[in-house]
Design goal:
This protein has 15 helices and 19 strands. The chain has 516 residues and is an alpha/beta fold.
Length: 516
């Protein structure tokens, strides 16, 4: 595709190269291969299920060793709450109180994330932690609210929740949405709940709790204001980062096959998906990093279970790190053979789930040592996995990595070929799903940070259809943060209980018992 001088200048100013943009165009035109799954990871076949004794062992390991590490939490938090309030936005834009009736409208438009009954909506609305904020705005701006018909009351409640006249929740990130209420007057946003949680497992005797949020530049002021309010004593080290513009991607107009441009004729770039955050993780300095999504946070005492298993995951990681670094030093300095070499092989196979290249057994001792060092010396992640409670979907699988070798991977449903019966059969056999509950190490055995881009499988991205200004467009999303972006990492899966997973995907999730 030919680029004008103006295009070239814009691309370079955005931090991209012409080669990268052309690569994205080729992907949008030709698509990407599906991930080849071999079998689901299950308990005793890729997933570890520690019993109570083992849990206590890893808890003790964490408590005994945490002073040796810098611990940090990373929370992807840049996404707006648009999808969370999707049905409310549709209702707000299309419902006319004098013309429509709530129940008929909700049924007709299949608004599954709204109460089917009008009375239920009004009776349950006070259960939202932001209820009092909405009512305060209504009392100030619409004193006649209580004289309205119930159909119009519903519209006004939604209006003052999502619109700029009220709380503007439809365009705020989830981090700033009030998730929970404690007693009568205390409420906490999703961000505040993460701060409460982070105190429990990143603080040590030599460091205060450390947490970093990825946010969008336009929300910096809002972020600073909230952090200032809730961290007055600076007892938590709170920072933020942006998704880097050089990770953005171009779009193709599906009607013309041309690059999407704005009204001024300039190229339009969009964020390349959460996989772009691998660059943000690269910039972190901590020895051990906890990763958890902004909308998956528990309330009150329910956090105790989450903290318990966070420490177990971290303790398990510490054990693996210690042994990995020990064996790498032996491989580097002692040139092991015989039983020692077999010991390292068994650790790689049984504890790190590493599968060797075909023909490994034919290598001489020197070749085996080089290969083992190559496989052991890479980033490490221990990921919590939750049992499926509904339809099988994305989660832990044995799959082929970018080099065609069997490895443990987190695979999304969209990455598996929907037209391949065998692949779909494997998908249906999956027993666990991925709640995004990671503890990772990004430093090598000498304490130097890995170049994380070296372990990304670029073929594991996504090509999907979206809309831009009402027109269908093709978009490319980079390999997901815990999918293709960590394809080449050493991976261990641990079963964790469902109680550690309570995401808020829609506003009605906040009415579930675990958030009340």
């Amino acid at each position: 595709m030919k680029f004008s001088p103006e295009d070239i200048a814009q691309i370079k100013e955005h931090g991209l190269s012409l080669e990268e943009v052309q690569r994205q165009i080729d992907i949008l035109n030709n698509g990407l291969p599906f991930t080849k799954v071999i079998e689901p990871a299950t308990v005793s076949n890729g997933i570890v299920k520690p019993d109570e004794t083992a849990q206590q062992t890893y808890l003790n390991l964490f408590e005994q060793n945490k002073e040796q590490y810098t611990l940090q939490k990373f929370v992807p938090a840049s996404g707006a709450a648009t999808r969370m309030f999707k049905d409310w936005v549709f209702f707000h834009q299309n419902f006319q109180p004098g013309r429509h009736y709530y129940e008929r409208f909700v049924r007709q438009h299949q608004l599954k994330n709204m109460e089917p009954d009008l009375d239920d909506f009004l009776n349950n609305f006070p259960g939202y932690a932001f209820y009092q904020d909405v009512m305060d705005v209504i009392k100030e701006n619409f004193p006649g609210y209580f004289q309205l018909d119930e159909n119009e009351q519903v519209w006004q409640l939604i209006h003052f929740t999502i619109s700029d006249e009220g709380l503007a929740y439809a365009r705020k990130p989830k981090a700033f949405i009030k998730f929970h209420r404690y007693g009568k007057n205390i409420t906490k946003t999703a961000l505040e709940e993460h701060l409460t949680e982070v105190r429990a497992y990143t603080a040590t005797g030599r460091q205060k709790p450390i947490v970093s949020f990825s946010i969008s530049p336009q929300h910096q002021q809002m972020f600073d204001q909230l952090v200032q309010q809730v961290n007055l004593d600076h007892s938590i080290d709170i920072s933020n980062s942006y998704q880097k513009p050089e990770t953005d991607t171009v779009m193709l107009d599906m009607a013309t096959g041309e690059l999407v441009r704005d009204d001024a004729g300039k190229l339009v770039f969009r964020p390349g998906g959460h996989g772009s955050l691998i660059d943000n993780i690269q910039d972190l300095e901590a020895d051990i990093i906890f990763i958890k999504n902004i909308d998956n946070v528990q309330k009150g005492e329910a956090q105790l279970t989450t903290v318990h298993y966070k420490k177990i995951l971290a303790g398990y990681l510490m054990e693996l790190l210690g042994k990995t670094r020990h064996y790498l030093k032996i491989l580097q300095k002692e040139k092991p053979i015989g039983e020692t070499l077999s010991e390292i092989e068994n650790f790689a196979l049984q504890k790190l789930n590493i599968r060797f290249i075909e023909g490994y057994d034919t290598l001489n001792n020197s070749g085996k040592r080089r290969y083992l060092a190559y496989k052991l010396n890479r980033p490490l992640r221990v990921a919590g996995m939750v049992k499926n409670t509904g339809e099988p979907g994305g989660g832990p699988f044995w799959a082929k990595d970018k080099n065609g070798i069997k490895s443990l991977q987190i695979v999304e449903k969209a990455q598996i070929n929907p037209d391949d019966p065998q692949q779909q059969s494997i998908l249906k056999q999956s027993t666990h799903f991925n709640p995004v509950d990671l503890v990772i190490s990004i430093k090598d055995f000498e304490g130097k940070k890995f170049n994380l881009k070296e372990f990304v499988n670029e073929a594991a991205g996504f090509v999907t259809e979206k809309s831009y200004n009402g027109k269908p467009v093709k978009v490319y999303e980079r390999p997901g943060l815990w999918n293709g972006a960590m394809d080449g990492w050493n991976t261990v899966f641990i079963e964790v209980p469902l109680a550690t997973f309570s995401p808020v995907k829609t506003v009605m999730d906040l009415l579930k018992p675990e958030h009340q």
